[in-house]
Amino acid sequence: MSTPKLNLVYGGNPDYTLLASCAGDEDTGGGLCAFDGHTLQVIDRVSSAGLRVEGDRIIRLLRTPISTGGGEFVVYDARGVRQYFRVDELSDGHYFAWDGDHIVVASTGTNSILWISMSGAVDRVWRIPGDDDSCHLNEVVLHENRLFVCVFGDYGDYRGYKGRERSGDGYVFDLETGDKVVRGLCAPHSPRHFDGAWAVCSSMRNEFIQFASDGATPERTALLEGFTRGVAVSDDYIFVGESARRSDPGRIQRGAIAVLSRTTLETVSRIRLPFQEVSELALAPRELVEGTRIGFRTNLLRIHEQDQLFLFHQLGLEPKRIWATSDPLPPEQCRAGVSAAIPDSFELGKLTLVDCTIQNLGECFYSPGISNPVSLSYKWQRTKRSPMMEHQEGLRTGLPCVLPPHGKLNLRMEVMPPPLPGEYLFIVTLVQDGVRWFDEIDPANACSAVVVVREPQQTQAPDSSTDAPAYLAPRKN
After folding, report:
1. CA neighbor of 23 nearest in space, from 80, 57, 64
2. Of 229, 231, 226, 258, whose CA–CA distance to 245 is shortest?
3. Domains in the chain, ordered, with CATH?
4. Which residue of 3, 165, 224, 299 is 20 to 30 Å from 137, comparing CA positions?
5. Which residues pair with 374 in a beta bridge?
6. How far apart are CA 429 and CA 358, in angstroms?
7. Does the pLDDT value for residue 466 go beyond 50?
């Protein structure tokens, strides 16, 4: 079944992307995928388990098998990795909820639930009696400010659920009361509460089930192709992960995401994945997904240095200089998109930072290397109301990395105004030292605005009256 174009609308907002956290032991490996409604992209190849979108962050749990112990969380915002922390007490961490203060995660390997602060500290532990991983406690979900937990069944021995996954012993229960809200499941995963009732993957039977409000009566069931695990719900669709079963590799060779109609539960489409197992699915705003693509590459200078060194190390060389040289660009390749948050005025003699965005619209690389580096810069030109002065060139802001064709960079440019107050035309553009200014080829390679350079504001001497702040008051002997 081919994948049609899908409108990923969530809460009435169409600017969403479907993320898939994937795994795969000793075969395809795992990683993070993004589906924008049209195409699937592999963001990275790091095996992952739980995944959640919370406000302006994406929280990701990396997969760590029970044999090695420990767990790792990576937190993203729109600019890349914001935080990483390791939790040694976590064993075979599966899926997690966010209660506003803590990551509440299933430590499957220890039959436990851990409350983890954003510093990585474990503030609380709750445990089901029995040997480690006896009941395969695998998920914690938050619904109406209450925590609900998903298990394979009531077993006391290590992996006592093995061979019993089809027995229907699985259930979802209220952590505070112990009440079973959904029962009769076969190796359950991914409980969700929406449209007024619970829905759960009965994974061993390849099913996704929507229950009646009593939690015991299945109202609708979708029979899918693989081991069901990972659920995300948009305004129009229910996305359910399908994994290749480890015990039955001949059934399906690769994981997929089944796209179900939210109104009928019929399979609308299927998104094929390059990995064998789907761990978790989540809908995320597009700007947050961009942060997962940036990842740890948040410092462009650091990354550029490491990339340059890597090229030399691949050749077995120790470089005397790591920066690439920059040859003169032909005029037809000096094409750039430039935008800047230009203020209305600048203060005489005061260095000011201006936020800029540049994009390489040519077909050559723009390099900061010698002998003809490409830089971001600016010019001051006279208007009819300007004082008498020559046109002036501004300070150079070096590119932190090589800018490839169609690449884009956000930079902060230092600006020093002319030495005379008055009105000026301020032009922001690129320049290749010793070659040319880009705006001289085409004014479209720049952005500009008429601004005022003003005298510095006079600061008043502090008032020694009783109304002055305490730290300015005269000292009493």
Report:
1. 64
2. 226
3. 16-294 (2.120.10.30), 331-454 (2.60.40.10)
4. 224
5. 432
6. 9
7. no
Q: What's the token pair of residue 314?
A: 């691949």
- Among 217, 196, 218, smallest CA distance to 207 is for 218
The closest of 48, 18, 3 to 239, measured between CA atoms, is 18
Single out the residue of 32, 28, 114, 123 nearest to residue 70, CA to CA.
114
CA 144/CA 133 separation, integer angstroms: 28
Q: Quote the tokens at residue 468.
A: 């002055």
Q: CB–CB of 49/304 below 8 Å? A: no
Is residue 305 very low, low, confident or very high in pLDDT (cuts 50, 70, 90)? confident
Residues present in the chain in total: 477
The answer on pLDDT for 4 being more than 90 is: no
160-168 long-range contacts, Cβ below 8 Å, gap at least 24?
160/130, 160/131, 160/134, 160/135, 161/134, 161/135, 161/136, 161/187, 165/204, 166/204, 166/205
Whose tokens are 């029962």? That residue is 183
Which residues on neighbouring strands pair with residue 414, listed in sequence order? 353
Report the SS3 class of residue 33: strand
Confidence (pLDDT) at 470: 35
d(CA 94, CA 139): 7
Tell me, what DSSP letter sits at residue 109?
Answer: G
Rounded CA-CA distance 53/233 in Å is 13
For 281, half-sphere exposure in the C-beta direction (CA atoms, 13 angstrom radius) is 32
pTM score, whole prediction: 0.77
Burial of 399 (0-12, 13-18, 19+ CB in 10 A): buried
d(CA 201, CA 196): 17
8 A C-beta contact, residue 377 and residue 396: yes
